[in-house]
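1st attempt posting a full record on here, be nice pls
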Amino acid sequence: MARLVRPRKKASPPAPPSKTVEPVLEPVYLGLSQPLAGPTHAVDASVAALDPTVFNHPLRTDILHLCVVHHLDSLRQGSANTKTRGEVRGSGIKIRRQKGSGRARLGDAQSPMLIGGGVAFGPKLAVTCQLPVSMGGGEGKCLYIDTEGTFRPVRLLAVAERYGLNGEEVLDNVAYARAYNADHQNALLTSASALMSESR
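the predicted structure (as tokens):
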């Protein structure tokens, strides 16, 4: 049985590329809110044309929430202050005898392990670690890794004045670093440990 074979049509050549370039995305127009106080602006001045490659995307409420929380945290005063076990009010007598009670050994009531006791590692440690050994310090320097943006040098100056130290020298002995995420914090700790091993 013979088969009928249709002749194939020749493919037409592709059309030449157009020289006119059309924009892929249209600009996004955003109406700006009026300020709470001050003169009112015209309607045309309250509209801004934004780049569509940046702003024409779905709204990420999770990222917006993180930005708002970070901004509000940076507005805090940062005047946190803690009391060490030497500053907490109370008797220095030992709570119970060292052995024979069957319970854990304890010192005085100002121990950081007890409720109402002092704070072991509070914000004042950046200054108290520079005190001489005779005053309960370590005669050393401090590395402050800030994860919340609450570091305030003015607070260190106030604590240094209380202990009778030079504020400029106290700030010179404090190395400050701002950590923005967990990976950045780990990298800062690694570089800090390398610097500490070199300075020994």
